[in-house]
Amino acid sequence: MKKKAKKKKSTTILRLTPKQKQFADKFIEIGNATEAYKSAYVTDRMKPGTINTEAKRTRRLPPVNDYINKRMKQIEDAKIPKQKEVLEFLGGVMRGTLKITVETDEGPKEIPPNWKNRIDAAKELLKRMPMDDPITQAQLRKLNAEATLAESRTNESQDKSGRMRKLISKKSDKQLEEMIQSIEGGGNK
């Protein structure tokens, strides 16, 4: 018996023709496949039903559909500001280099932001910056310890007899309080 040679599957990449690209761009702009088809192709001798059918068929073609989806994603991504853009905006407000247009008696005038806006922008920038300061780290440890202590004091459940009991002993509460005092600067144990 002879073995049949396997046919290699061709992986041709379907490319967008100029007219398909024009159709897709118009479709993205107006959202109507029939009108987009009319603007991209010659439809003088076509019936309205045929135009509609061809518009739907063209819209479903893989290269056209992929192009439309990719462009729509790009448009959506452009609407959402990136982290760098937000930081640059806040920096511009804080430094006063970003100007605000206000209406005055002499007409529109560009002025720098007021001090309150500049201080608020500086605070927002500081929230987004990593802190390597030992004092800040100590304050964070203290806040975490206090949160753990408060949580342990309220962590109660019912036993089988219906009475409320604390799950964490008094001894662990005392240890947490000692830890908070040591962080604050060596208070009395």
From TrEMBL:
Pfam families: Terminase_2 (PF03592)
InterPro entries tied to this protein: Terminase_Gp1_N_sf, Terminase_ssu
Region described as Disordered: spans on this chain: 146-189
Biological-process GO terms, alphabetical: chromosome organization
Domain of life, source organism: Bacteria
Protein name: Prophage Lp2 protein 34
Biased composition (Basic and acidic residues): 153-162
